[in-house]
Amino acid sequence: MVMFNSKVEISRSHKKEGFSKMHHAPSLPLFHKATNARYLAAIIDEVDTKRKTRDPWKLCSVTQVEEVKLVLRLIPTWLSCLIFTVVQAQVHTFFIKQGATIVRSLGPHFQVPPASLQGLVGVTILVAVPFYDRVFVPLARKFTGKPTGITVLQRIGVGLFLSILNMVVSALVEAKRVGVAREHGLMGDLKAVLPISIWWMLPQYMITGISDAFTIVGLQELFYDQMPEALRSLGAAAYISIVGVGSFVGNIVIVVVEVITERAGEKWLGGNNLNRAHLDCFYWVLAGLSAVNLCVYVRLAMAYVYKKVDGGQTSDRQGSSHNKYRPGV
Question: pLDDT tens across 294-310, in order?
Answer without folding.
Answer: 999 999 999 888 776 55
